[in-house]
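Table S7 (text form). Paired inputs.
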Amino acid sequence: MTVAVRSFAKINLGLYIGGARTDGLHDLRTVYQTIALHDVIRVSVGRGSGIEIVCTDARVPLDSSNTCYRMAERVMDELGAKGRVNVEIEKRLPVQGGLGAASSNAVATLVALERALKRKLSAPVRLRIAADVGSDLPLFLVGGTTLGVGRGEEVYPLPDLPPTTCVIALPDIPISTPKAFADWDEETKLTPSTHSDRMLEFSREISAWLNAAQIGRRSGVSAGGGGRAENPLLDLVRTGIENDFEKVVFPKYPELLEVKRVLEKAGAK
């Protein structure tokens, strides 16, 4: 039996990057938001052994470097299951497009494999395996509007934003996340105390936004002021939340900055 699962994309409504950790990764504060764009993952388990990745997109690795491969390996080991796992990835999302496609694919593989085997891992085990495979995988087990801390793998659900029209502009410019982090380290050279101050600043902004949103829901007044409750996403924007990657990516790829300017000029929030 083949099980198909949609693999949704994410955007970061804001991202603050802290100092490099001893493991070489970075402390983060971010607000994730899953969106309707998606790939499709199809999983089947047959006789034999091993894991096969199938995808017609030449940019997708088909070996053990693929997150779906690593996820399938971990799930089979955790469940003590036997068989040959086939994972077919129907790509609709861009590769290295910042939408978390590879991570989402891996989580969809986990869900599909559980259904194919008719066995389910506990929620803590699912989150542990997801975090081991990659930093932003756990968010796809939560979905919706989610706060990410640590290296992004520690996730907490936030009140869902209302359905919102979202335009995704996808210039044909793949951006390597590890390279973007390296550029950030080179450009900022922040002291540990400065990193700590920025993380605390972000935490305060999110806390204030959540508190104001709660008050707004009770009173009918927008957290950002005004007569009636507005879209809380706009109130989040008013906190000044930013994406730190823009500071190092835009100078190297000015066409991306131009895309942002065009969207803002057209009225995007």
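Next pair, protein 2 of 2.
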Amino acid sequence: MKRLFIYWLLFFLFSCTKKEKDKPVVMKILPDYPSASTVEYFNGKLYVMGDDATKLLVLDTNFNAIDSILLFNYPDKRITKNIKHDIESMMILSNDSNKLLLIGSGSLTPYRDSVFIVDLATRKKESKAITDFYNLAKFKGIQELNIEGAAHTDLGFVLANRGHLGWPKNNLIFAMWLMPDPASMDVIQVKGISDSSSFQGISGLAYSMRNDALIMTASTEQTASSFADGPIGKSYIWIIKKLSYAIGKAELSPDIVIDLEQIDPVFKGQKIESVTILNEANDMLRLVMVADNDNGSSTIFKLSIKLN
């Protein structure tokens, strides 16, 4: 009887593990962490930053909080909107794999015109103003800055600038580094899917070097400025294939558009803010995404997609 019970227990645990692995979407609410706006995977850990948070949150791949790094001294959990640095994107620096680059959105000078470099080994932080770089982006045609995504690519690195109902244009900024060098900056508009009811703005970036594919998150939000929040609509994944051929084009359009609500109704009402690649095999990508629903908490998701 005891042996039978052990067999039953092992079968139950195996079944639970298999069910979890086979789930198309894994979701977890982070009730004590506000406004998740960007996520990056590195060396077995997930790094999450909120646009008004004081700490960089560190998770394992099962979404358990294992550490945090204080970035900003502020008495409350959330930094006041008119003085926050509005970190909406981050990426690991390719020339120093222990350093994480966090980028202010540029939507309000001078508070949001800085980048922060965090050494993940020593936990030391340094900051640098990039106002001249952002001014060059405006000169290149970006009417209103709102940097929401960043990724390393075969072309250097790329930033995503999100539009809004008042200025309905999404742009990718290709550059070699955050220097105001006109020769090394290229701005290309991204055309989304047609939807007359709302504008879909790019909210996050990740790059698959194996497939030369740019993975973008996009969402609708009823706001007419780069500063204000608005009611949340739908969220999507956009994919541009063969990104290396993008430079020199007047505009780009996603080759693949995925309505996240059609994958799982759990995405209804979720404002997806960022995406990172957990692992990839051929044309199958395992992604992690975060959502900020403007209620003081955050939500994190895991799902798999195919590029073909």
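The helical segments are 2-22, 131-139, 260-263.
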